[in-house]
Amino acid sequence: MTDPAAARRDEILASAAELFARKGIKATTVREIGDAVGVQSGSLYYHFDSKDTMAREILMDFLAAIQDRYAMALAQASDAADALRQLILASLQLTREKPHATTIYQNELAYLREDPRFKEVQAASAEVRRAWLDVIERGAAEGTFRADVSPKVFHRLVRDAVWLSGRWHHAEDDYCAERLADDITSIFLHGFAARPAS
User: Fold this and answer.
1) How far apart are CA 178 and CA 36, in angstroms?
2) φ and ψ at 79, to 5 degrees?
């Protein structure tokens, strides 16, 4: 049996996520969130003590999903190159499943880093970053990836290519997430220059 209070919380969070993604956390008011779910803004405080609490819950749910998906992806990877592809694919799938949370996470990183109320989010984000860096550093140590490029720089380039692709890559496209993951991995590991005919 569905808990009405839990269902209402989920509805509030879904509306807040859409508004935060479209307008930003700072620019979104509690009143707008209330209007979106058809309740007085004061009634929202029964469920959440602030809009930052809503944002924190949305982002912690998103980061937990990333960590779970990355753990599964890395468990089935055969080597560093395959692990990189698995992280890329898992991320692309999550951009489709949680588009608003993805946008909030990408757009609000500077705001989140400065605000001590988001320490949990900062810590979870650091763990996500560590998963990428571990794979990149392992590949460099094995000789699969270049060792002359900073793992942090490589991570930032891949991260932006992957997470920001959610803004233009849509589920109805024939160009599926698996193919995009293959192409991103190939371009980052082998370049975009045409290969000589053999």
Assistant:
1) 35
2) -155, -175
CA distance 56 to 120: 8
Residue 176 lies in a domain: yes
Chain mean position to CA 115: 19
State the residue for tokens 């045409």.
Answer: 194
Structure tokens at 144: 């699969």
- Under a CB-based contact definition with an 8 Å cutoff, are residues 129 and 152 in contact? no
CB 69 within 8 A of CB 93: yes
- Nearest residue to 52 via CA among 68, 37, 80, 33: 33
Phi and psi for 3 in degrees, rounded to 5?
Answer: -80, 120
What is the CATH number for 81?
1.10.357.10
Max Cα-Cα span within the chain: 70
**Which amino acid is residue 12, in one-letter code?**
I
Q: For residue range 14-64, list pLDDT tens digits in order.
A: 999 999 999 999 999 999 999 999 888 788 888 899 999 999 999 999 999
